[in-house]
């Protein structure tokens, strides 16, 4: 509705074509909820404030109420914008919306949408009849994120978003070299954060492309080719596609540049011809003996 090229040419109207006299904005619908999505969607607070400001610009007499759990105005200039909108007459009620219903209890609620919420500041339940309700729904991963993760061999977090290599030391890298992530595929984020992460990913990719040499993991696996039976079990379970089948020798061939030393193939090899460097049987037994001798 706020889009000038939209169905209402930028005007806010109800179903009958008249402008609303009151609008409620419900924050955290599905976010920060153990029954749905436990994480914060991050963009909701500022999106709700932006909607309230734009409504007040078009309909100065309209009563706008935000129902929120916590106002998280964390970015540059966000807190100032929140104060500005508060001064414009927008109301903020600290409490989670439990229900939006059209069942009227009083004459005032007839023909209205009733927002039922708990006002945690006043410690009481409130029923607010309004003409329109805006839901700020939780940000969730795309439907095809599972397929993308499988194709790219990327891990995913418990929430379903693509998982970075390290939250601090490798925020745009993945466990697979050459694959970088940026934007909301890694988790809910707004435009400035997405742009910054996109620039970081481009820089990391450029660094990799212009490097004369690339450091690889020291703790990779090694194999005794003469004893390999060519069963291909290791190829099917390698998460980094570091193993290929050699038709000529009928054995598995390892690419040390791709191997990350996870040891999955060493544990699964039925012929026991694969060994993880620095994690041989003798080395592990020595570690156990060293711990027990303390």
- Average pLDDT level: 91
What is the count of structural domains? 3
Binned strand content: 15-25%
- What is the structural class? alpha/beta
- What's the CATH architecture name of the largest domain? 3-Layer(bba) Sandwich
Query: Which strand order spans the largest sheet, edge to edge or round the barrel?
Result: 3-2-1-7
Distance between the termini: 71 Å
Number of helices: 7
What is the CA-atom radius of gyration, in angstroms? 28 Å
Key words describing this protein structure:
single chain, 294 residues, alpha/beta, Alpha-Beta Plaits, 3 domains, 7 helices, elongated
Written account of the structure:
The protein has 294 residues and is α/β, with parallel strands linked by helices. It folds into 3 domains: 22-137, FAD/NAD(P)-binding domain (3-Layer(bba) Sandwich), CATH 3.50.50; 145-210, no CATH class; 221-286, 2-Layer Sandwich (Alpha-Beta Plaits), CATH 3.30.70. 26% of the residues lie in helices and 19% in strands. The protein has 7 helices and 11 strands. Strands 3-2-1-7 form a 4-stranded parallel beta sheet, with helices on one face. The chain starts with 21 loop residues before the first strand and ends with a helix.
């Amino acid at each position: 509705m706020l889009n000038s090229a939209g169905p209402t040419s930028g005007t806010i109207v109800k179903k009958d074509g008249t402008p609303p006299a009151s609008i409620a904005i419900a924050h955290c619908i599905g976010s920060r909820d153990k029954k749905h999505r436990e994480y914060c969607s991050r963009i909701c607070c500022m999106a709700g404030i932006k909607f309230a400001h734009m409504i007040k610009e078009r309909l100065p007499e309209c009563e706008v109420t935000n129902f929120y759990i916590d106002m998280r105005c964390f970015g540059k200039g966000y807190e100032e914008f929140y104060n500005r909108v508060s001064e414009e007459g927008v109301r903020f009620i600290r409490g989670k919306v439990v229900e939006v219903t059209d069942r009227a209890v009083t004459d005032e609620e007839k023909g209205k949408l009733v927002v039922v919420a708990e006002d945690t500041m006043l410690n009481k339940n409130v029923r607010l009849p309004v003409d329109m309700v805006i839901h700020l729904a939780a940000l969730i991963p795309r439907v095809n994120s599972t397929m993308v993760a499988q194709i790219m061999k990327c891990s995913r977090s418990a929430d379903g978003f693509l998982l970075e290599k390290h939250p601090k030391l490798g925020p745009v890298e993945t466990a697979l070299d050459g694959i970088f992530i940026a934007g909301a595929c890694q988790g809910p984020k707004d435009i400035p954060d997405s742009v910054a992460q996109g620039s970081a990913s481009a820089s990391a990719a450029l660094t990799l492309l212009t490097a004369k040499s690339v450091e690889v993991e020291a703790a990779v696996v090694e194999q005794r080719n003469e004893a390999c039976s060519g069963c291909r079990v290791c190829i099917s379970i390698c998460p980094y596609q570091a193993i290929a089948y050699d038709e000529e020798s009928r054995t598995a061939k390892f690419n040390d540049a791709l191997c990350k030393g996870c040891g999955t193939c060493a544990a699964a090899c039925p012929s026991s011809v694969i060994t993880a460097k620095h994690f041989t049987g003798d080395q592990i037994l020595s570690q156990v003996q060293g711990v027990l001798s303390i």
